[in-house]
Design a protein that fits this description.
Helix content is about 60%, strand content about 0%. With about 40 residues, the chain is mostly helical. The protein has one domain.
């Protein structure tokens, strides 16, 4: 079983990877199959 510290460390590592490589996140929004995910202003 994972401790709170294990979970916190895992989340921090994942977030730091996403911050270092924003193309990963931006790639989701460029994918035409995922075009329904977007910001609606209204």
């Amino acid at each position: 079983m994972r401790t709170v510290d294990d979970m916190r460390n895992g989340i921090q590592k994942a977030v730091s990877r996403l911050v270092e490589i924003p193309e990963i996140v931006l790639g989701f929004f460029r994918d035409p199959k995922l075009a329904y995910i977007g910001i609606s202003v209204g």
